[in-house]
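Hi all, long-time lurker, first post. I run a small reading group and we've been trying to get comfortable going from sequence to structure in the token notation. Rather than ask abstract questions, I figured I'd post a concrete chain and ask someone more experienced to write out its structure so we can walk through it together at our next meeting. Sequence below, copied exactly:
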Amino acid sequence: MNKNCFVSWSGGKDSCLALYKAIESGYEPQKLLTMFSLESGISSAHRLDENIFRAQAEAIGVESIIGRAEFNDYENVFVSYIKSFKEQGINYGVFGDIDLEEHRQWEEKVCEKAAITAVLPLWKISRKDIVKEFINLGFKAKIAVVDTTSLDTKFLGQDLSLSLIGEIEDFGADACGENGEFHTVVYDGPIFKKSIKLNFGTEVIPVGEKWAHIKIQL
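-- Answer (accepted) --
Happy to help. Here is the structure in token form:
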């Protein structure tokens, strides 16, 4: 059986490092699948526009697939996409989850429906070790979204670095943001053929009662 895979792609550090580790293990990425909310027209958690995902995929050299679903129909739409991937000879799905068991169970469930095997390259690695490895490998990412109940909006637009991770921890937040304290957008690194030039706005945009982000454009 070939090791063709799709990657559940958020545009952030965890899915990126999972892709990197999958490639190192011999998997061959064919698709980067990103799910968009039909209600908002942007990616759900990271709040990024479609053109950013296209630019990332082009820089990496893997096709970008944008799925669109209403909240209540998310699982059905996701499964329909990966069933089509299976028909194209893709046998594995790569996910960037670390230690949230309910996430793994969902990923294994939906992949099983499509006769695809779920692969979690980051599973049970220390959260802090993951973000340190990401940085030390030379990946570049900026913070795109913060949970304002956990982090100050001053972190928006800042580059991930070992010193910044220390500041995040000083706020009492998880170094990897695995509890949703922050989300990132990756723009360069070992699997990128070229760096993506991102332009960050300065206005802090509130999202609901506790989130904030800034506008990011190419």
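A couple of things your group might point at:
The first strand starts at residue 4 and ends at 8.
DSSP finds six helices and eleven strands in the chain.
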